[in-house]
Amino acid sequence: MIHASSPAHPAPVETTTGLNNRKLLMWIFLGSDCMFFGSLIATYLLYRGKSLVGPYAHEVFNIPYTSISAFVLLMSSLTMVLALSAIHRGDMRGLKVWLLATALLGTVFVGGQYFEFTTFVNEGLTLKTNLFGTTLFVLTGFHGAHVTVGIIILLSFYLVAARGRLKPEQHLNIELAGLYWHFVDVVWIVIFTVVYLTETPNIVT
Amino acid sequence: MAAVSGALPRWLQRPTTYSGLWGWVVTVDHKRIGVMYGVTAFAFFLVGGIEAVTMRLQLATPANTLVNPDTFSQLFSMHALTMIFLAIMPLSAAFFNIIIPLQIGARDVAFPRLNALSYWVFLFGGLLLNAGWLFGRSPGAGWFAYSNLTSGPFSPGSGMDYYVLGLLVLGTASMAAGFNFVVTIINMRAPGMTLMRMPLFTWMTLVTSFLLVLAMPVITVALIELGFDRFAGTNFFRPEGGGDPILWQHLFWVFGHPEVYILILPAMGIVSEVLPTFSRKPLFGYPVVVLSGVFIGFMGWAVWSHHMFTVGLGPIANATFAITTMFIALPTGVKVFSWIATMWGGSIEFKTAMLFAIGFIVLFIIGGLSGVSHASPPADAQQQDTYYIVAHIHYVLFGGSIFGLFSGMYYWFPKATGHLLHEGLGKLHFWLAFIGMNITFAPMHWLGLDGMPRRIYTYNSNMGWDFWNLVATAGSLLIAVSTLVFLWNVFTTMRKEKDAPADPWDGRTLEWSISSPPPIYNFRTIPNVYARDAFWHQKYVEGSDGRPRPVPTGGATAHSEGHEAAESPHDIHMPGLSYFPIILALGLALTAAGIMIHLAVVAAGVLITFFGIYGWAFEPADPE
Predict the structure, then answer these.
(1) Mean pLDDT across the stretch A52-74?
(2) Which of A28, A47, A142 sits opposite B182 (nearest CB)?
(3) How far is A48 from chain B (nearest CA, A)?
(4) Which terminus of chain A has a smaller tally of CB atoms within 10 A, N or C?
(5) How far apart are the C-alpha atoms of B333 and B134, rounded to whole Å?
(6) Tell me, what's the pLDDT at B12?
(7) Which of B360, B367, B404 is nearest to B388 (CA)?
(8) CB B257 within 8 A of CB B303
(9) DSSP alpha helix (H) spans, B233-314
(10) A71 CB contacts (<8 Å, ≥6 apart)?
């Protein structure tokens, strides 16, 4: 994905649709990733409120805390757009600043998730405890892994840009990283709503 | 292929060798990758065949003791997994690779290195899935591996671990291939090749690729959940922890039914190319055949619960899925009638490829009809888990997919290799396979209706199943012989001089406009497309009587050879070779295998994966 030093594919003459191949690839990948998260979310919904033993969602969730980290992640979409806007203007210094800011906000989110997971475990909720623990950790964990991959991509571009090897005409790289980043944010909006905001009482006990 | 190794452009940097084994390891050429896919998949096809024949020998007589029940479980599980994931899917991928860029007038796929990655990940995933034969044990819970048969207490040992990790790795390969071919077909078509001028095989590949891209993530999630259950003690499919085993069935079949169309649509695409060529008529009802293929692609998502009629989902769900299942037979029927109408009134030439295509129609109709019979829940309740189902799936997968793929092999073998397969041996292969297939699988209908359950390792003589089981075993040996005839045909053909002309069958599509095998850059000049069956219209015009007349001057040859605007081969920029696809594939496979072995192996795998990704991303473009 990171064709930073020079484009690996010498600019293809033109494509049938006029859409860049790599951009089309990213969109199709995101479509595929929708099915991935869709299946995980469906699993979560099927098992919601069906744990045999506690702790249950309302006992461990700290909604204000998670709301703040969700806000942080959403703000990172803003900085991502600013990074793209910077490279479009040829403002490489702005690009570096906003890339770093986006990665930093993402790191705060992942760090917050790590802290949250630790708290859950301390309160007796692990992967094995009950269906809630199983589905919660796997769903949000895979989302966290996606964010982590995004952070690595952003930092890679930051390092390439810092070494002066990212040219303004290579803005497609940043645009694609942005598509991925925004997608991961949107997925979090769904997860946050489904998992945290619409929690239901356990119906088995 | 080997013929182009001399005409190597000098400016290729990165790995520079096209010759020897190393040239194949670093290649990104779609034709070479296609050949590797084909050879590897055929090797796995033979492995799956050996497993099948072993099972048939065990079942030849009642109370037989050739293999024990445990081995038998592993045999039927691995036979299905091998044939589906390691034979039919990659054989289709071989045709995608070799043919699609040629049919759409492109010089390669959209992402050549990603294409190489797909192949290597497939190879390592296939080896991982089969590693259980050598280390410990193989998966033994059937190919759809219903939970909670797959949980620790019921599947002890490492067998199901190979299933989970092997299929996860293979899924990555399929998705990568799917991404690549969606982008290639949407974006890399020659000027003038609109969607409704695309060859049918290209169309079916597009639909299949979309299915791959959207269906594989679902099984990925199912496998991840099963993996967590097995490795981390989670509760996804463990009833004692509140988990619901039926969730596995839903996730599996939401993937599994589109998967069925992933297996059959490429074969449908192949026969839609072969039938018009050897009937010397355009495909009857092209738009309808295309749209019914697309419709199957959509409807394939709405029928999955017909695999679960006996689960007890209730009358509403059963009725709904019965209706959608009967409905999906319609576009399939439309295709069958279009193929028959294509042959109607044509001047049919019974080459081996054509025989396999006709065999496909005949056998697929039988398999389709038995399929419709279990679209009805009450009938299905009788047929569920009996040999009737085994008969059905082998008529559609062996009589359908494999016959379609063999048709494609005979049809495109000269294009891929420059060698024409021997027609006499080909026809012998066809008749042995056709007769053997019917002797093997037709009796399974009666066995199933007589109540013989699938997946039993033996049976008592007093059940009355002896005779037809013996017949089926005899048939399976006939199929084995037919496969040996094919191998002999390939072997002897490859030892001869390359003699295939560019256009041995008087073909209709662009791949026949260039030499056999094609030069590394495929087309010296990217062709302009003015019609469906583009190459046919370069060769023929319609006479006043409505019959085709050859274009007076040159036609075919004028296109492939001296075109005044043709670029010099040295100016054609081809993607550079690369080490990184195989490195990245190795990293991914090692990471997966490490989960079974040791965390240190996982760490090593992750490191290699990162090295592969960064090396890939920063690999210099070719200087020029």
Answers:
(1) 92
(2) A28
(3) 11
(4) C
(5) 44
(6) 38
(7) B367
(8) yes
(9) 245-279, 286-299
(10) none
Residues in chain B: 624
pLDDT value at B466 more than 80: yes
Residue B246 has pLDDT above 80, yes or no: yes
Instruction: For this complex, say whether ipTM is above 0.90.
Output: yes
Tokens of A1: 């994905």
Tracing tokens 């994905």 back to the chain, one arrives at A1
The answer to whether B111 contacts A25, with C-beta atoms less than 8 Å apart, is yes
Residue A16 lies in a domain: no
Residue B254 with chain A: CB contacts under 8 Å: 39
Looking at CA atoms only, how far is residue B134 from chain A in angstroms?
Answer: 32
Residue type, B575: P
Residue with tokens 């067998």: B159
Question: What is the predicted pLDDT for the residue at B620?
Answer: 72
Closest partner residue to B186 (CB to CB) among A6, A24, A204 is A24
List, as ranges, residues 77-116 from A with C-beta within 8 Å of B. Answer: none
Asked if residues A88 and A120 have their Cβ atoms less than 8 Å apart, the reply is: no
- pLDDT band, very low/low/confident/very high, at B568 (cuts 50, 70, 90): low
- The whole-number pLDDT of residue A12 equals 46
**A–B: how many Cβ contacts below 8 A?**
120
Residue B624 has pLDDT above 90, yes or no: no
Distance CA(A25)–CA(A29), nearest Å, equals 6
Residue A95 lies in a domain: yes
Give yes or no for a contact between B167 and B80, defined as CB atoms under 8 angstroms apart: no
Residue B488's pLDDT is what? 97
The mean predicted confidence, pLDDT, of chain B is: 91
**Residues 3-32 (A) with a CB less than 8 A from some CB of B:** 3-10, 15-17, 19, 21, 24-25, 28-29, 31-32
Are B175 and B216 a contacting pair, CB within 8 Å? yes
Across residues A9-17, what is the average pLDDT?
A: 64
* Cβ–Cβ gap B621/A17 under 8 Å: no
Indicate yes or no: CB of B621 within 8 angstroms of CB of A36.
no
User: Looking at CA atoms only, how far is residue A66 from chain B in angstroms?
Assistant: 24
Whether residue A40 is predicted with pLDDT greater than 90 in this model: the reply is: yes
pLDDT for the residue numbered B545: 77
Distance from CA of A191 to the nearest CA of B (A): 16
Residue A87: give its domain's CATH number. Answer: 1.20.120.80
Nearest CA in chain A to B194: A16
- The pLDDT, as a whole number, for residue A199 is 72
All domains in chain B, ordered by first residue: 2-578 (1.20.210.10)
Confirm whether A202 is domain-assigned. Answer: no
By Cβ distance, the residue of A32, A128, A204 closest to B175 is: A32
Nearest to A130 among B175, B178, B235 (CB): B235
pLDDT mean over B62-69: 94
Q: Which of A6, A15, A20, A21 to mutate to test the interface with B (most CBs of B within 10 A)?
A: A21
Q: Residue A137: which domain range?
A: 21-197
Residue to substitute from B103, B221, B247, interface A, most A β-carbons within 10 A: B221
CA distance B40 to B369: 33
CA B494 to CA B515: how far, in whole Å?
17
Q: For residue B4, is pLDDT > 90?
A: no
Report the domain count for chain A: 1
Q: Is A35 on the interface with B (CB under 8 A)?
A: yes
CA-nearest of B386, B426, B432 to B407 is B426
